[in-house]
Amino acid sequence: MQGLAWWQRGVVYQVYPRSFQDTNGDGIGDLQGVRRRLDHLVRLGVDAVWLSPIYPSPMADFGYDVADYCGVDPIFGSLQDFDRLIDDAHARGLKLILDFVPNHTSEAHPWFAESRSGRPSPKRDWYIWRDPAPDGGPPNNWMSNFGGSAWTFDPASGQYYHHAFLEQQPDLNWRSPELRAAMAEVMRFWLDRGVDGFRVDVIWHLIKDAEFRDNPPNSAFTPDQPDIARLLQVHSADQEEVLDVIREMRAVVDDYQDRVLIGEIYLPVERLVAYYGPELSGVHLPFNFQLILAPWNASAIARLIDEYERALPPGGWPNWVLGNHDQKRIASRIGAAQARVAAMLLLTLRGTPTIYYGDEIGLADVFVPHELAQDPWEKNEPGHGRDPARTPMPWDDTPTGGFTTGRPWLPLNDTRALNVAAQEADPRSMLRLHRALLALRRSHPALAAGAYEGERTEGEVLAFRRRLGDEELLVALNLSPNPAEIDLGRTAETLLSTHLDRSGPEPAGRLRLRADEGLVLRL
Ligand code: GLC
Ligand code: CA
């Protein structure tokens, strides 16, 4: 694995700080809590922690509305707590990645107050202000990702400001050189403090059409979809010039040693890979969400892996994601049994995997009654909210799961049925499976660094080989609840089953897989 950077070899784990561990009884997770649970991550075997936003924020979008890029919200702790967290993480060999939210600030950010103070403000063009349309309405038809128009009128100045998300999240104007310089300073602030990189929020949104043309209608829109899907985001996002902005961000990161830049990008594969940038000057890892969006069947997944592998630019390092704080959890999408198979897939594909907290124990979405809804999207567009995937981590079987001594900000799952402590004790638990998979990745460089070769799909069995030097591994995943067989042709040794009850030599010929079983074999 020589020659690979840590972010290529390693595995990333996403912590949603509000829901990881509360230490002061206010029902909200905090930085002290993350520190306290670092050993869980070490035992799990991941390499890096990505923290969702911890900056001062009115929490209209739970931290994705930043009021100060260079601080820590008191609800999470202090800068000193952050420094301690970084030290503790590094002492354990863990990297720490921050969530950087450059597309918009909170309306409470002092920059916005200045910008809003009137047209002559020197920071007026740090945000996106436009005159009304001739009829006095919004400047164009762009819609907010959380429903309704993406424009809000400011009576004092007679102009509208743009917000791709909530009206409390005004979009920054990345065409302004001063704004770009200020944001580079922000990145340096954290890099100087020792962070190992950034996950950049909605990076494909940073530059909008210079002429602010209307977005065209989406003819495939169906009423079960959110408002935003009514239009194709042709002019409001994914503009070619965004790659210049990203090149600048990358240059800031490259001034430091061994840091990583990851981009959140929801685009089809052929557009996604453009974010590696010309000559790989873009993000190191454009998040690949294909496994979240694809139907769960062997041929569809085999096809998408091939498509992705083929689309990667020379030298572009792949990555895979199964879930995050914006998506239905994997255990709810495909069920508990297949979630084990999915874990094996995630951790044996070629490229950097990202694990969402809770998925390592098979946590499912938790029903959150409408009156308890926290997510602003749920309040605007009921049914689309993300609270169910953001519930507190159940560490033990007490009603509040060892997460808090107070009232948790979101309800927990049935902790008696599913919690970390119980899975520690159960040798065949999902947690043990994750540990085994991560240990296997470490002890078999073919998994972390080897070449990928797809096998012909047989029925619902997805199979591929990973090869490095003399070692050749076969991964065979039964994506169905029925037993299956594939042709093995030669003898092999099972290294790991998702059922955690099988290893050793397999006879040449047909390889049998039980229902919902995945295997890693050495050929
Ligand atoms: C990203 C975040 C999401 C947030 C949005 C606005 O998609 O992952 O949680 O609501 O950006 O910042
Ligand atoms: Ca707390």
Structural write-up:
This protein has 16 helices and 19 strands. The two termini are 20 Å apart. The longest helix is centred in the middle third of the chain and has 16 residues, at 177-192. It is α/β, with parallel strands linked by helices and 523 residues long. It is globular and about 80 Å long. It has 3 domains: 6-105 and 177-437, Alpha-Beta Barrel (TIM Barrel); 110-162, Alpha-Beta Complex (Oligo-1,6-glucosidase, domain 2); 451-522, Immunoglobulin-like. An 8-stranded parallel beta sheet has the order 9-8-7-3-2-1-11-10. It has a 6-stranded antiparallel beta sheet with strand order 12-13-14-19-16-17. Strands 4-6-5 form a 3-stranded antiparallel beta sheet, with no helix packed on it. The protein binds alpha-D-glucopyranose and calcium ion. Calcium ion binds at residues 22-24, 26, 28, 30.
